[in-house]
Amino acid sequence: MALSPPSSPATPALRTKLPAVGTTIFTVMSALAAETGAVNLGQGFPDFDCDPALVEAVAAAMRAGANQYPPMAGVPALREAVAGKIEAMHGRRYDPGTEITITAGATQAILTAILAVVRPGDEVIVLEPCYDSYVPNIELAGGTVVRVPLTPGSFRPDFGRIAAALTPRTRALIVNTPHNPGATVWTREEMLRLEALLAPTETLLISDEVYEHMAFDREHESASRFPGLAARAFVVSSFGKTFHVTGWKVGYVAAPPALTTEFRKVHQFNVFTVNTPMQHGLAAYLRDPAPYRGLPGFYRAKRDLFRDGIARTRLRLLPGEGTYFQCVDISDVTDLDEAAFCQWLTRERGVAAIPLSAFYGDGFDQRVVRFCFAKKDETLHTALDRLRRL
Ligand code: PMP
Ligand code: GLN
Fold first, then answer.
1. Per-residue model confidence as pLDDT tens digits over 267-310
2. Sign of the CA dihedral 371, 185, 96, 78?
3. Cβ atoms within 10 A of the Cβ of 68, count?
4. Where do the domains of the chain lie, and which CATH numbers do they carry?
5. Within 10 Å of residue 244's Cβ, how many Cβ atoms?
6. 36 Cβ closer than 6 Å to some ligand 1 atom
7. Per-residue buried b or exposed e for 23-55, using 16+ beta carbons within 10 Å of the residue's own CB
8. Which of 158, 274, 295, 321 could form a disulfide with 185 if both were Cys (CB 3.0 to 4.6 A apart)?
């Protein structure tokens, strides 16, 4: 008997590995802003372009034929430039050969680090509110997510609660400073407390420092500054944030040799390599420290403009020490919950924002929303005019 294919072939049934995951709130709010023509202060990305010299450096690399696979760990000149930058800023020398790996943005770096070290049953502590990729990353590795809240309102670490969450099964803790969405910057004292807390443990640290060059009122205290943290840390950063090129997706991880070895085993079969001309362009551009040294001043001016404007609305300002985000309390303006308010604000008032509940596993609603001020001053003025009328 001749076999004939079924008329409507069915896709085999599958059980989702990430039942709680849908489209990210950043994509949802950007789509709504585009559909309604609202000023998009939701998703975190600049509405201005990068330095033309950086584009030229990448184009020059392409024209020079840097278009094939680079070394697996990254173009040596870029790894050297990253090592030089970390040493100049934080005083720790990472070996570009054994301790620095170039990644496809911080998102890949964090997933790869987690896949490299977390086994089924291991616990990983996240401090909520936290960036939305951490939890699904831990789940993909089979780890158990342990959620510890930052103090609501101030978004400062609560060391009592972190200490209480540490167990012999805690494989890793993820810290993010400067903090998205809380806009706080961990102090030297907080980093020292973290170092002391982790000292007697086997817990690794994933230190998400993608906003490292956006600390306004105090220096960014990288985990690489603290020997007891650096010895157990994957320090992650992203050129997307630093050079206004979020779409390029190039970042890096600095970690001691034993951690880097395991990281690269996964990286090798995850992306293998990161695009070559971007790496050469970034290496050339990093020779001049002025662009990243000037970044705090550049964003401090925007922070001040935006906060001064918000102070003249009925929204209540929360911390603004770092990152290009600003959270505000909406409770004097509306009875709506955060998500409904963000929808209403976008549709009816023409300004898109992100509900903070999106950064909590249980959807905790504290009547706070996040704006991104990485925008042209004219964009910020337009948004502030609209927010003043709330
Ligand atoms: N961590 C945090 C805290 C972020 O805000 C972002 C940016 N969305 C990332 C990681 C990811 O960075 P990248 O775009 O380089 O993947
Ligand atoms: N990091 C950006 C934010 O927090 C968004 C990145 C993304 O869309 N995944 O807004």
1. 999 999 999 999 999 999 999 999 999 999 999 999 999 999 99
2. positive
3. 7
4. 25-46+293-387 (3.90.1150.10), 68-287 (3.40.640.10)
5. 21
6. no
7. eebbebbbebbeeeebbbbbbbbbeeebeeebe
8. 321
If one counts every other C-beta atom within 10 angstroms of the C-beta of residue 361, the result is: 14
Distances (CA, A) of 364 to 164, 176, 344: 21, 19, 19
Distance 18 CA to ligand 1 centre (A): 20
Burial of residue 246, with CB atoms counted within 10 A of its CB: 0-12 exposed, 13-18 middle, 19 or more buried: middle
Cα separation, 252 vs 306, in Å, equals 30
Point out the ligand nearest to the CA of residue 238.
1
Which atom of ligand 1 is least distant from the CA of 109? 16
By most ligand atoms within 8 Å of CB, the mutation choice from 27, 45, 111 for ligand 2 is 45
* Cβ of 252 less than 6 Å from ligand 1: no
Query: Which residues surround ligand 2 with Cβ inside 6 Å?
Result: 24, 26, 43-44, 180
pLDDT one-digit tens code per residue, 185-239 = 999 999 999 999 999 999 999 999 999 999 999 999 999 999 999 999 999 999 9
Query: Residue written as tokens 């050469």?
Result: 280
User: What is the per-residue burial (b if ≥16 Cβ within 10 Å, else e) of 77-92?
Assistant: bbbbbbbbbbeebbeb
* C-alpha 111: how far from chain center: 12
